[in-house]
């Protein structure tokens, strides 16, 4: 059993993101290559993005704090702290409207 404060880690990562030229920082809190489920805490400074990419499987974003946009094609969803977004299977990107931290949960599709 392992316990992690996502709020505390999100604030730590945001400090790292503020020091990064890319304006982002991340830490996998559960899973990895040996698991189907992978959960990664991501912090983005306002105006930073995760560039357009494809999802490796089913995924959700749970916003801990801040405000983000999830964009796919011509569709945009906004989320604030406490919101859960289901990530589309289509190519998508994430933009931080404010300094933000969110938990990305992905269930990888078996190869």
UniProtKB/TrEMBL annotation:
What SUPFAM superfamilies does this protein's entry cite?
RmlC-like cupins
Q: What Gene3D superfamilies does the database record attribute to this sequence?
A: Jelly Rolls
CDD domains xref list: cupin_HP0902-like
Q: Which InterPro entries match?
A: RmlC-like_jellyroll, RmlC_Cupin_sf
Instruction: State the protein's name.
Output: Cupin 2, conserved barrel domain protein
